[in-house]
Design brief:
Layout: E1 6-8, H1 13-21, E2 26-28, H2 43-61, E3 70-79, E4 82-84, H3 90-100, E5 104-115, E6 118-130, H4 135-143, E7 164-168, H5 171-175, H6 179-190
Parallel strand pairs: 1-2, 1-3
Antiparallel strand pairs: 3-4, 3-5, 5-6, 6-7
């Protein structure tokens, strides 16, 4: 068998689908890292630290014969510098979406690569404006099950698309893997530097 081109240090089906979209062969190898926010940590610094930690965690556990480039990513939603994680229950979802309702927030996604020649990372930052949401809409959305494992309590590519009034930035980055920055990192090792996917 041909080994995978890269190892994806994430269990996210969205990130895997986005890699498939640009034709990058990969194997899914999720890792667990401490995702606690450090005191005073900016949202962009937070996602960068976690993406690099995930890439390092997978790289460090690989045997020599398993060595392949590792790709990791992390995404967070932030409002006025405050980091919004994944809602644990309907109460947290109500609080998060209630605060995002009718306002513009930021979505930061970092992507990191580890390979035999070193490491590199990029950050994609986008802004998302939601329309005003009613409490009934938020409760109905929670009942779909979609918000539970999403930063900020919503999925741009899912049912929450009807909540989104405006996006400025990277749609794929908001989904969880900014493809422009990902390709910047992967192209040199794929032999496609300066061009798009084959």
């Amino acid at each position: 068998m041909t080994p995978p081109l890269i190892l994806l240090a994430s269990a996210s089906p969205r990130r895997s689908a986005l890699l498939n979209q640009i034709g990058v062969a990969h194997a899914v190898r999720p890792v667990e890292v401490d995702e606690s926010v450090r005191s005073g940590e900016a949202p962009s610094a937070y996602v960068l630290r976690l993406a690099e930690a995930k890439a390092a965690a997978l790289w460090d556990r690989l045997e020599d014969h398993e060595r392949a480039p590792v790709l990791a990513a992390d995404t967070t939603v932030a409002l006025e510098g405050e980091i919004f994680g994944k809602p644990a229950d309907i109460g947290e979802a109500r609080a998060m979406l209630g605060r995002l309702s009718g306002r513009t927030h930021e979505v930061h996604t970092a992507v990191a690569v580890r390979h035999v020649d070193g490491a590199a990372a990029r950050i994609s930052s986008s802004s998302v404006s939601l329309r005003e949401l009613t409490s009934e809409e938020i409760d109905a959305y929670w009942a779909t099950g979609e918000p539970a494992d999403k930063a900020g309590g919503y999925a741009v590519q899912g049912r929450a698309a009807v909540f989104i009034r405006h996006i400025a930035g990277s749609y794929s980055g908001i989904m969880g893997l900014p493809l422009y920055e990902t390709w910047e990192l992967l192209a040199p090792m794929l032999g496609h530097a300066g061009s798009g996917p084959a």
